[in-house]
Amino acid sequence: MEAESKTINQFATRVRQMILQYQSVTKQNEDLCRQVAEQQERIAKLEAQLQQQCNDYESLKLARMVEITDGDMQSAQKRLAKLIRDVDKCITLVNEKQE
């Protein structure tokens, strides 16, 4: 009888230990799930930020290309105006010599 009582007490003790361990593992699992959710949220924010940065970069590249094109256009217009003045001078000189 005493052996059975001792066995039952050991069994009850082990069951309590298992319950405590289950509760501990359950809490740890909840903490880990919360951490995973937080990290997923952080990843989503960082991906959105990265996408925004990529869009900004593309816009800046495009703006830079337009700026260069405008600068080239202005310098080309200046060169063309100078060439026209030079041609006008040449025409004037040729007309003067013919007279």
Summary, kept brief:
With 99 residues, the chain is an all-alpha fold. The protein contains 1 helix and no strands.
Oligomer type:
single chain
* Overall mean confidence score, pLDDT: 88
- Beta content comes to under 5%
Low-confidence stretches: none
Task: Report the radius of gyration as a whole number of Å.
Answer: 42 Å
The secondary-structure class comes to mainly alpha
Described by the principal axes of the CA atoms, the overall outline is rod-shaped
Amount of helix = over 70%
If you had to describe this structure to a student in words, what would you say it looks like?
The protein is an all-alpha fold and 99 residues long. It is built from 1 helix and no strands. It has one helix at 2-98. The longest helix has 97 residues, at 2-98. The radius of gyration is 42 Å and the shape is rod-shaped. The mean pLDDT is 88.
Write out key terms for the chains shown:
single chain, mainly alpha, rod-shaped
Give the SSE map.
Blueprint: H1 2-98
